[in-house]
From TrEMBL, chain A:
Transmembrane segments: none annotated. It is a peripheral membrane protein. Keywords: Acetylation, Cell membrane, Cell projection, Coiled coil, Cytoplasm, Endoplasmic reticulum, Membrane. This is Myotubularin-related protein 9. GO terms for biological process: negative regulation of autophagy; phosphatidylinositol dephosphorylation. GO terms for cellular component: cytosol; endoplasmic reticulum; perinuclear region of cytoplasm; ruffle membrane. Residues 515-542 form a coiled coil. It comes from Oncorhynchus kisutch (Coho salmon). Residues 123-498 form the Myotubularin phosphatase domain. Belongs to the protein-tyrosine phosphatase family. Non-receptor class myotubularin subfamily. GO terms for molecular function: protein phosphatase binding.
TrEMBL record, chain B:
This is Myotubularin related protein 8. The gene is MTMR8. InterPro entries: Myotubularin, Myotubularin-like_Pase_dom, PH-GRAM_MTMR6-9, PH-like_dom_sf, Prot-tyrosine_phosphatase-like, Tyr_Pase_AS. GO terms for cellular component: cytoplasm; nuclear envelope. Residues 126-500 form the Myotubularin phosphatase domain.
Length: 549, 605
């Protein structure tokens, strides 16, 4: 299929672009296979380049022969295009509708994108499981890297290499996999250097209604416990949801079969509920009415902040078990690809200072989300505005980012990156020129051969100028565990994403620039003082005769 | 001291309000002015001080297995839950605190005891530090339209106003006195803020005694005079800050609001801010939300909504924005009133002034504004803050709301204010603590009668001395005379955790950007001084200054190095500077004597 067939009117002149808090631009609208472009063809005004993939929904309106298309984007921005001529407007609208909902993976933009920047370090090779394991090996000998899943036959959503206890052989892993949802047998998620405790994650055990058990599964997780020690199983579902899962073949670890483990249930919602929550939240943020009661009640009814609080609380619990209780932890929900990953990755942010660096955070996303098989493509194919019925869409990763932002806000000096990095990741999970978030698992990405055919987001991010842009000027390495407050008063609505297009960013940008400037100036000043000191010392040694008292 | 039955209680537990953490154990002391809890269970000596006059409520709960609980909540939202093992001790402490926290008369307030070791001259100068009359001069008064009058010098015109008032030049004495008879408590229309750029003015007063049909020629003339003082505008706004229903109810009592038919060219408007009783109840509900033990997000948000607090904050802000817009954009004068014109009117006029005039966004400017709109125009601090035992129905968080609106503005304009959140909290604290005399008494006449200026100290010089703490490192003067146009969409108003949960440190961010930047700005001054010193030393060693014969110490007069060193020393002498100074300093950094020498060193790194 040629894109040209889908584009009935590739170009319209005299189109007016209206965006809140920005000057209107009049210019030529062009449609290409992947972009909607509006250019005024004047040097000093910016051009709008919008990926079709970023368009969540459109609305058309007509007044006489003037058509208006309202474009609602997955990054929550809403723009308006006034298009002269009814036919042109209809053509443009229908083309956008088709181009923004193409299902075929082979037509996705990352496969067409050629980088305009020099790739210094190929992001596809930056965070290989082998390399991560080398770090682990330097700390402990109790773990090994198994290639039991090398052809993705044991678990389709796992990567080819996973870390498992050294004493457990591949055969045991295969049997344990058969007992876990989606073949997701317990694997290592995090090793806490301070006390040697670990966090593992998996899918739910397939106990079913008649209480099936699996010796190999028990052996596998018990192998992670020190003699005489108990571990914690954090089930991200409530007891009743976990109970109900039994009827569908799932379930949870019973005390009888896992006597060395204490099970704690949390209440992180399933993905369909999270998607609904996002839609309601965005709707609340777009409400232009001036009623405070209405805003607060809509915010409350969206339940978004409730989810943030619940996820953070669960992550704190996991971190607490490891760091304070000195116990190992297994985390799972149902599939082990959503709430499980929210908890394991946030717990690492809390516990491990390395995850709070720019590189370390990428490694965390790579390890705990991409390699761990979070189905990005399914979860992020629609955002808050889409009119089509949601299938598997859910803001699971966005909620994770929101929680990271909450911790960042409470510890503004402990992260090497600023919230710009989190916003950037949010944008790229929903629409991107990079192949990083394509596909639903390592196996899918490998089948598509993305590492050859597309550019990695990390290749872009790790260039010095981008690192500079994403850096947090306040950062001072903090090697401590950071415990966020989860009191409702301490958790704010993430303005950087949800209110981003709702108000002028001028004053906030200005403040940020000023802060950077102050810190930068101070650094330069300190450098200059140090240089002067050095010169002085040099002179003093060179010319001892001239030395002043 | 006669009220203190038990000055010291040992083995007292201080509970953590929110978590199940182990309570702190320590000794409770009652002094003449403070309740002090000294923790003995931890290695570092930790003290909690509570000023008696800040205590809003003391509650003794029924005896439990742990002991007898004593709940104390303060006007600055500090809450402490103690458990005292002996019920009798608890009873005694409770009884003492009830008495001590509610002084029977003003003279018992802390300000009359507080002695910062200043002599009489210092005290007098301190009281003269902020002069609201000076602010009218700053606005350009007197000018061809407005003048300052002393018609109220004996407080005969209006007992609750300042002795000096700004009125339109064309208003005769007869008009002024006539109008006073037609306004509740004689609070005539008087100048609050004069906007030089547009000639428009904000004036304030109390409600007219219009009843169902009464009118007053002098009052109509007074409004005419105000309107004429802004010759470019064909009309003026009259803003009644009350909800229309409340204002109408007042008509039956012989009060009310202006009839548009009787006053020429006025545009009348209600803005619907609720009265002091609604606000008091709303705060009560808000504090209940703050005190909830491990609430769910839903409990919290629903509680926040049901308290109505943010709705009221938004209403005050909306009114302030309306006034500022009228003056800056419509270039029309505005007359504002509520019932007595000392609560909502004070809130709205001071907010509008801040929006219009960057002076009030400076540390000193805010002092002037509070002095002018709140202290000298007769806000009833004694009753509203409940300084002394009195009618609990007169207590209302009117000033707190003003401060909160200001905080919301600062959140929207992080570079727009010279001061930071700590300054607001400190002022708020002093309004309630009565450590200084400023916020005692309801009007100038009362303060003179109480001889406050001789018996107490002013808070302003004290705050000014500590101004480095209150500085906003991000402040940019370059915003110039910009009128602030904040968005008042509901989503722009946040719950002020820093105020209402200020003492619950666990809820605050664990690292403070403000503190971080304040430290840096402090270092900056030191660094600049250090650099200057080093440059001079280097120059001396290089021989540049050798022939001047002053190799060390502070350089007296240097021609070669003058641009760098002199200006830096001057900057250092002044309070820490903001962005403008940074840029200035940076330019100067380049062409210094050491610059050629510096480069090779820099490359080596």
């Amino acid at each position: 299929m040629e894109f040209a067939e889908l584009i009935k009117t590739p170009r319209v002149d005299g189109v007016v672009l209206r965006r809140p808090f920005l000057p209107t631009v009049e210019g030529t609208l062009c449609l290409t296979g992947h972009h909607l472009i509006l250019s005024s063809r004047q040097d000093n005004t910016e051009e709008l380049w919008l990926l079709h993939a970023n368009i969540d929904a459109i609305e058309k309106r007509f007044v006489g022969s003037l058509g208006t298309i309202i474009v609602k984007c997955k990054d929550l921005r809403v723009i308006q295009l006034d298009i002269p001529g009814m036919e042109e407007c209809l053509n443009i609208a229908s083309s956008i509708e088709v181009l923004s909902t193409l299902d075929s993976v082979s037509l996705m933009y990352p496969l067409f994108y050629r980088p305009m920047f020099q790739v210094i370090e190929d992001g596809w090779k930056s965070f290989l499981p082998e390399d991560a394991f080398k770090d682990l090996e330097s700390m402990t000998e109790e773990w090994r890297l198994s290639d039991v899943n090398k052809d993705y036959s044991v678990c389709s959503s796992y990567p080819p290499l996973v870390a498992v206890p050294k004493d457990v052989d591949d055969d045991t892993l295969r049997k344990a996999a058969a007992f876990r949802h989606g073949g997701r047998f317990p694997v290592l998620s995090y090793y806490h250097k301070k006390n040697g405790m670990v966090m593992m994650r998996s899918g739910q055990p397939l106990t079913g209604t008649n209480g099936r058990r699996c010796k190999e599964d028990e052996k596998l997780i018990n192998a992670t416990l020190r003699a005489g020690k108990r571990g914690y199983i954090i089930d991200t579902r409530t007891v009743s949801v976990a109970q109900q899962a039994k009827a569908r073949g799932g379930g949870f670890e019973s005390e009888a079969n896992y006597p060395q483990w204490r099970r704690i249930h949390k209440a992180i919602e399933r993905s369909s509920i999270l998607q609904e929550s996002l839609i309601k939240l965005v709707e609340a943020c777009n409400d232009q009415s001036h009623s405070m009661d209405r805003w607060l009640s809509k915010l409350e009814a969206s339940n978004w902040q409730t989810h943030v609080k619940e996820i953070l609380t669960s992550a704190c619990l996991a971190a607490q078990c490891i760091d304070r209780e000195g116990a190992s932890v297994l985390v799972h929900g149902t599939e082990g690809t959503d709430s499980t990953l929210q908890v394991t990755s946030l717990a690492q942010i809390i516990l491990d200072p390395a995850c709070r660096t720019i590189q370390g955070f990428q490694a965390l996303v790579e390890r705990e989300w991409l390699q761990a098989g979070h189905p990005f493509q399914q979860r992020c194919s629609q955002s808050a505005y889409s009119n089509s019925k949601p299938r598997c869409e859910a803001p699971v990763f966005l909620l994770f980012l929101d929680c990271v932002w909450q911790i960042l806000r409470q510890f503004p000096c402990s992260f090497q990156f600023s919230q710009h990095f989190l916003v950037l990741l949010f944008e790229h999970t929903y629409a991107s020129q990079f192949g990083t978030f394509m596909g639903n698992s390592a196996s899918e990405r490998s089948k598509l051969n993305l590492s050859q055919k597309t550019v990695s987001l990390w290749s872009w991010v790790n260039r010095p100028q981008e690192v500079e842009r994403l850096s947090n000027p306040l950062y001072e390495a903090n090697c401590l565990v950071i415990w966020p407050s989860v009191a409702p008063q301490s958790l704010l609505l993430w303005e950087g994403v949800f209110l981003r297009w709702k108000r002028s960013s001028r004053c906030l940008d200005e403040a940020y620039d000023e802060m950077v400037h102050i810190i930068q100036y101070n650094k330069e000043l300190q450098n200059k003082v140090n240089n002067l000191r050095r010169q002085l010392a040099q002179l003093e040694t060179e010319e001892p005769l001239l030395q002043t008292p | 001291m006669e009220h203190i039955l038990t000055p010291k209680v040992e083995e007292v537990k201080l509970l953590d309000r929110y978590t199940a953490k182990k309570p702190a154990i320590g000794t409770l002391y009652l002094t003449a002015t403070h309740l002090i809890f000294v923790e003995t269970s931890c290695n570092t000596r930790k003290e909690t001080w509570m000023l008696h006059h800040l205590i809003a409520t003391v509650e003794k709960l029924p005896l439990t297995a742990m002991g007898c609980p004593l709940h104390i909540s303060c006007k600055n939202f500090h809450v402490a839950h103690f458990v005292i093992s002996s019920e009798r001790d608890c009873q005694n402490v409770h009884q003492s605190l009830v008495r001590l926290s509610q002084p029977g008369k003003v003279e018992e307030l802390y300000a009359f005891l507080y002695n910062p070791k200043q002599d009489e001259d210092e005290r007098r100068n301190g009281w003269g530090f902020i002069d609201s009359a000076m602010d009218f001069k700053r606005m350009g008064l007197p000018n061809e339209f407005w003048e300052m009058t002393d018609l109220n010098k004996n407080y005969e015109l209006c007992s609750t106003y300042h002795s000096e008032l700004g009125i339109p030049k064309t208003a005769s004495k007869g008009t002024v006195f006539g109008s006073a008879k037609f306004r509740s408590r004689g609070r005539i229309p008087t100048l609050s803020y004069y906007h030089k750029e547009s000639n428009a003015a904000i004036c304030r007063c109390s409600q007219p005694l219009s009843g169902l049909s009464a009118r007053c020629v002098e009052d109509e003339e007074m409004l005419q005079a105000i309107s004429r003082a802004n010759p470019k505008s064909t009309f003026m706004y009259v803003v009644d800050t009350r909800p229309k229903l409340n204002a109408m109810a007042n008509r039956a009592a012989g009060k009310g609001y202006e009839n548009e038919d009787n006053y020429s060219n006025i545009c009348f408007q209600f803005v619907g801010i609720e009265n002091i009783h609604v606000m008091r109840n709303s705060l009560q509900k808000l504090l209940e939300v703050c005190a909830m033990k491990s609430p769910t997000m839903s409990d919290y948000l629903t509680g926040l909504e049901n308290s109505g607090w943010l709705r009221h904050i938004k209403a005050v802000m909306d009114a302030g924005v309306f006034l500022a817009k009228a003056v800056a954009e419509d270039k029309a004068s505005v007359l504002v009133h509520c019932s007595d014109g000392w609560d909502r009117t004070a809130q709205v006029c001071s907010l509008a002034s801040i929006l219009l005039d960057p002076f009030y966004r400076t540390i000193k400017g805010l002092m002037v504004l509070i002095e002018k709109e709140w202290i000298s125009m007769g806000h009833k601090f004694t009753q509203r803050c409940g300084h002394v035992d009195g009618d609990p129905k007169e207590v209302s968080p009117v000033f707190t709301q003003f401060i909160e609106c200001l905080w919301n503005l600062m959140e929207q304009y992080p570079c727009g204010f010279e001061y930071n959140e700590k300054y607001l909290l400190e002022i708020h604290n002093h309004v309630y603590s009565c450590q200084f005399g400023n916020f005692i008494g309801n009007c100038q006449r009362e303060r003179e009668e109480m001889r406050l200026y001789e018996r107490t100290f002013s808070v302003w010089p004290f705050l000014w001395e500590n101004r480095h703490q209150y500085r906003n490192p991000l402040h940019k003067c370059s915003l110039g005379r910009e009128v602030l146009r904040p968005s008042t969409l509901p989503l722009n108003f946040k719950f002020w955790c820093g105020m209402y949960n200020h003492f619950d440190k666990g809820m605050q961010p664990k690292q403070s950007i403000l503190e971080h930047l304040l430290t840096i700005t402090q270092k900056k001054a030191e660094g600049e001084k250090k650099m200057t010193d080093l440059q001079i030393q280097l120059a001396v060693m290089d021989g540049v200054l050798a022939d001047q014969g002053s190799p060390t110490g502070t350089p007296p007069e240097q021609t070669s190095l003058a641009p760098v060193s002199v200006s830096h020393t001057a900057e250092n002498a002044k309070p820490l500077m903001n962005g403008a100074a940074v840029e200035e300093a940076e330019i100067e950094l380049v062409p210094t004597a050491g610059s050629e020498k510096m480069e090779p060193v820099a490359i080596e790194n």
